[in-house]
Design goal:
Number of helices of chain A: 12
Strand content of chain A: 5-15%
Radius of gyration of chain A: 26 Å
CATH class of the largest domain in chain A: Mainly Alpha
Shape of chain A: elongated
CATH superfamily of the largest domain in chain A: Replication modulator SeqA, C-terminal DNA-binding domain
Oligomer: homodimer
Strand order of the largest sheet of chain A: 4-6-5
Distance between the termini of chain A: 54 Å
Helix content of chain A: 40-55%
Order of helices and strands of chain A: EHHEEHHHHHEHHEEHHH
Structural class of chain A: alpha+beta
Chain lengths: 199, 199
DNA sequence: GATCGGATCGGGGGGATGGTTG
DNA sequence: TCCAACCATCCCCCCGATCCGA
């Protein structure tokens, strides 16, 4: 049971609508609101959370875009390419290298999807892929052994993107992956050289 | 004002029909029942009670302010921003860290609401939110499991504010939260550095 | 006995390091 | 065999929330 505080006139109004002797305010309210006696409704919370990059959830959204047929809204900080991203506050304030790494990839994807797709295919290690599409499908499809191996690399979805990246790598390797991606995609040399300062 | 007792589910139903932050159950009921507004306007019910922060009840009240359409009166000690707060007697004499923590947040909210709102969204832990709006609604809406988790963090309404904060944290973490909030809101570095002395 | 502040300690994630492969 | 490149184990630190003491 809960106690709520209401103004006197509202209280009078409720009592004025009494229909049976001994009816409680609560019962009267139910009737007035056309609610069943045993009302049991859960209002589901619909908050799509982006657990992987915690920092800029509800930031200004721009650029409605289409990914896999679904429309998405991209945070402003990620919508204007790598160069602008480097200058953005959210990027500078982010301390976790993996997050910066993924933010860059998001920005790059939206800057040039075709080039990104091509570069993603070429960027891989000796035994493992570094990037790919549709992580969920991959995780569902592979056989047990391969799956264990795959998971060891800690692949994660790149936010606002149909791609995933490997996450279990030291910073040096993350730089290598970034460098390869940016080179293949044709980013200018001076921007590529900034990688080691930025992440 | 009258108090009436209602079942939990009815209470949830009422809160589920909230349309504006800070709306009281009474106001919601009026709308649902198509009743005119009361002539006597409520202030008390919107204002989070200050039973948690003791002993400045009879203190000078200043700065009539608007929170979500309701007018409130703010204790002088909390009305002039963080810097003044640090120098105030009530703050210095307060021994409970959590109270000081919340006093600072109240002061910060009134010093710059927009910045506060933005900073509150960004300030969060790995799995839990640190601040948010409308605790009542949150508590009524979430599903059982999430609710238990949420409650473990002991969220409390920040007095004179539509926000709540996590309270179940050690002092070190409270400092981290404060630091993040103040940085994001753009407080000067020297004030931020005083956090570890002040709380 | 009940409540409340918040230190303590278990758990989880980031990514450096040591081991492995070609 | 040795070296370079790569992999993924595992350490350390951060975060959460249980629980102890006031």
């Amino acid at each position: 049971m809960k106690n709520i505080e209401i103004e006197d006139d509202l209280y009078k109004y409720i009592l004025a609508n009494i229909e049976a002797f001994g009816e409680t305010p609560s019962q009267i309210l139910r009737r007035l609101l056309s609610l069943p006696d045993a009302f049991e409704n859960t209002v589901a919370s619909v908050t799509p959370t982006l657990k992987s990059i915690p920092s800029d959830q509800k930031v200004e959204l721009v650029k409605p875009d289409i990914i896999d047929g679904a429309q998405i809204s991209l945070p402003a900080s990620l919508a204007h390419g790598v160069k602008i991203l480097f200058e953005s506050k959210v990027f500078k304030q982010e301390t976790i290298v993996t997050h910066k790494f993924m933010m860059m990839l998001t920005a790059m994807y939206h800057e040039n999807k075709d080039a990104f797709v091509a570069a993603a295919q070429k960027t891989k290690g000796r035994t493992r892929d570094y990037l790919g599409q549709n992580l969920k499908v991959l995780l569902a499809t592979e056989n047990k052994e391969e799956l264990t191996l795959l998971k060891a690399s800690k692949p994660r979805d790149i936010p606002y993107t149909p791609f995933w990246v490997i996450t279990n790598a030291n910073t040096a390797r993350k730089r290598i992956i970034m460098t390869q991606m940016m080179s293949t995609m044709g980013y200018p040399q001076d921007l590529i050289e900034r990688i080691k300062e930025e992440i």
